[in-house]
Amino acid sequence: MVKIIETVYNFLWGDLLTLPLPGGGTLSLSLLVILLIPTGFYFTIRTRFLPIRLFKDMVGALFEKKGDEKSALSVIQTLIVSTATRVGMGNLVGVVAAISAGGAGAVFWMWLTALIGSSTAFIEATLAQIYKEKDPLYGGYRGGPAYYIHRYFEEKTGKQKRYVLISVLFAISGLICWCGISQVVSNSVASAFKNAFHIPPLYTTIVLVALAAIIVLRKNATVKVLDIIVPIMAGCYLLITLFIIITNITQLPGVFSRIFSEAFGLRQVAGGGFGAVLMNGIKRGLFSNEAGSGSAPCAAAAAVSDNPVKVGLTQALGVFIDTLMICSCTAMIMLLTPTSLTKGLVGMDLLQKAMEYHLGTFGVIFIAITLWLFSFSTFIGILFYARSNVAYLFGDNWFSQTAYKVLALVMLFVGGLATYTIVWDLGDVGIGLMTIFNIIMLYPLSRKALIALKNYEKAH
């Protein structure tokens, strides 16, 4: 089993194609990068650079009222759910790893990936809205790739179906991914609390699982909790970063100079390091904002809106919030820290050292609590996503819904007590497979989303 997971992981994320670069360097491309980057460019062109043209509409869509349907979610609530899952450990340790491996220039390519990825996010979220359906168990609406792929094949064949193979594969991949992420979440939190407070992982894990169980085993507590946690955690992280930037304002021009010079600099090309700069920025952007993976549409489908395009625009904005705001915060914290202090450190140790430089002991404690909030909200958010996939595979019944939640809680407990590399690979395999099944179908399905966009622009 371990061998199979590792083989699939290497196929999805390993170096599938290697291109030579001037100066003797190489540019290695994985299957997922080969799929996602062209898709992002394609939809950016097809939507006529939507992220730039309609940015005002993205923000305006947040304030749409949901109407009288009490069990349904507003547009901004679904953005909060998707932000909870996008903003996680990748925004902290992942960005640190990208800069460590690719230098400051990786940040620029991370930004560019968000810009083109937001168009993909728009297409998949709009489709989720167009094909959403009533949720008989939780109330409101549900949907996502499993549903819009299913409906596409029904429309194509003119026949009603119980299952569609690609929809089944997507749903299973999602459940595998979210089980893997559950273990990563608890492992990250337990490690951070051990470093900051010297609390044994067992105690941290028990508290984490108990709190999670209280929330996820209640019918509709998930969104209510996220409505509180997500704005607080994102707001506090932004404020702390702004404080660090202001106190180091004289260094800021130098930081931006480093980002742009290393992104395009001849030194990197000549030294054979340009490939590392480019790919570390792109991979971090793709991993973090999840555009194209098909996860955020599971939240987008739950929104009530008078136009599906407004939900698509909101989810496109979510990519910006994740990468241009939260990931950039971590990048600024890192790049405003003297490299001599962080030499030889990696991951969480490196980030905590950087925060200690800026804010003393408070910085170490703050980053541990921030990681806990980011990770905890991710766990709650992925179980919201799982609702739709579980229902697609097993029908509308409380037994299967509860069984998957219990399984996720067990994974959460196991992950906090032991580090298994295979667990990280499992999550990456799941999201990789989700992305392949989703991207393949976005091309034929996108016509409906593009027509909806055209009609929206005519009306506005």
Automatic annotation (TrEMBL):
Keywords per UniProt: Cell membrane, Membrane, Symport, Transmembrane, Transmembrane helix, Transport
Cell compartments where the protein resides: Cell membrane
Taxonomic source organism: Anaerobutyricum soehngenii
One Pfam family, short name: Na_Ala_symp
The organism's place on the tree of life at top rank: Bacteria
Coiled-coil positions: none
Gene Ontology CC, one term: plasma membrane
Keyword Zinc: no
Topological type in the membrane: Multi-pass membrane protein
Protein's name in the database: Alanine:cation symporter family protein
Listed GO MF terms: amino acid:sodium symporter activity
Transmembrane residue ranges: 27-45, 92-112, 163-185, 197-216, 228-249, 316-337, 357-385, 406-423, 429-446
Family (UniProt): Belongs to the alanine or glycine:cation symporter (AGCS) (TC 2.A.25) family.
